[in-house]
Structures are given as structure tokens and as C-alpha cells.
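Most newcomers find our protein records easier to grasp once they have seen one. Sequence and backbone structure share a record, each on its own labelled line. To make this concrete, we reproduce a full record directly below:
***
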Amino acid sequence: MEIGLSIPRIPDVPGLRRFVETAEALGFESVLAGDHIVLPTEGTNQYPYTSDGSFSRPSDEPFLETMTLLGFLAACTSRIKLGSTVIILPYRNPVVQAKMFASLDVLTGGRMICGVGVGWLEKEFQILGLDYHQRGAMTDEFLGIMQALWSQPNPEYHGKFYDIDGIQFEPKPVQQPGIPVWVGGHTKAALRRTAKYGACWHTTRQTPEFVAENLPYLKERIKKEGRDVSEVTVSLKRSLHFTDIGLGEGGHVRSGGTLVATTQEVIDDLQVCQEIGIDQLTYDFRVESLSDCIKVMEHLADKVLPVARRLG
């Protein structure tokens, strides 16, 4: 059982460096960054992971651009895996996106995770001049393009949105046949996308029970794609707050699947996840300051990470 962390959304250069260096020193598997370009001033009712559709953070929350942030984190680290949770694939040209990830994989010696999603915020698509209703089709095609560019000596792809041939794409990623794709989402379409393109189903803001209910369908689709179920791992991302370490819970809206619990309850939950078949857990922390994030991280590493390692 591996444990990764979601990077805090703070434009604090020393703080970001401290967070990722601490995560690496403590032995966490990965640090992952979210993705938004803009957020609507008036808020939203489209967020899939709260009861009223409101986003779990304020509209003026600072979001550093994901690939730029990952480049900075790469320069701060040497061992920990880095990636996206998740990059909204339709927002960027797929050839440029493939180049960004491949370049980072080379520069990090093969430490990148390409977490992808279709997106959910219609206003953001409008601002970027994109068709919100084509986001699923675009994501599928962009994945096909990126994987062709990463693996084929003479990349070729012909689809609805792009025709690609007669080019060289170098350097290839260190990881071959390509950077592992972690497919975000909670729908049947996300599971089908995982089965076709994914190395991991990286669902977010869900419960372990939700994952258990959907694993049979995922395994069925993996087999239909002619793949072995062992080729695809399962990751669950949730917010975490320990109730027994003296830190107050942040005031932002709780999203689905949030784990607010004692240390022992978090350990018990870890064991439940492992029994279900979840291979990796990614946490963000429901505290406001970077110093409190570090305290939670250190407690997680001290009390929970050793149990995860024993679970294998």
C-alpha cells in the first residue's frame, strides 16, 4: 500500500519547497498537483464532490499552473514521484502536453505520473474557448495521441480532432512504453477510459465502499480491452483530518469521502482499503497553514505509513 500527498495550493516558494522536501524525506510515494486555470467569481453548482455542487475552496484560491509547478518540484527533489491529480486534458494541446510530460520524465529520471481528467467546470471551458460537451471525446483522443507520441518511433494518429504523421517526437519518456496514466473520475466512462488507457484508476472524493462497488465493472472492462487486471492499479484520493493531534479542522466545505478520524481509525480505514483492493491512497489535509500541513504529514508518516508498508 502506497501513500501520496496532494500539494497545497499556495504560491509560497519556500513553503512549497519545504513541503515536497519533507514528503520525500519522510518516504511518501508521490506528491501530486491539481489543475485549474481560472475559477468563476460567482462560484459554481457543478462540482461533483459536494452535496450542493459548490467547489470546496474559495473562488480566489491561487492555483499555480500545474506543469510549471511540477517543473519546480522536480528541481527540489530526487526520489519522490511527481504528477497531476488531475490535469484537465482538454485544456492544453495534446502534442505540447505530451512534450511537457516527456521532458519532465527525462529531467526527473522517470518519476512522473500523468493523472488525467475530463474536467467538470463549464465556465472554465468557455473561457478557454473549448466545447464542454466534447470533453470526454477530446480526453480519449488526447490520451491516444500522447501515448503514440511517447512510444512510437514514427508517431502517427488520426482522429476526430487531430491528424498526426510525418514527425519525430524526441526525447521519449524514460518510462516505457510511456508515462503511467492515472485516470481520474467516478463514472462508468472513467472506468472504461481507465481500462483502455490507464495504469491506474485514480478516483477522488469517494469512499472505499464506492470503490468496492465499481471494481467488478472495471475488471470486466480491462478484460474486454485484452489486458490483464494486474496491469491496472487502484488509487483513492480523499481529504484527511486527524482529530487527536490538537489541530483544528479547516473551515472549507467538506468534499465527498472526507476522512475525519482518530489515528487508529485512519489505520483501520487503511486496512479496509487494502482488503478491498486499493493499492494507493492520496491525501490532502484539512488544515489552513503550511506549518500545520507539515505537522499532519509528520504524524501520518510516523503512525500510518509504517502500517501501509507492512500491508505490502
Remarks:
- The chain has a mean pLDDT of 96.
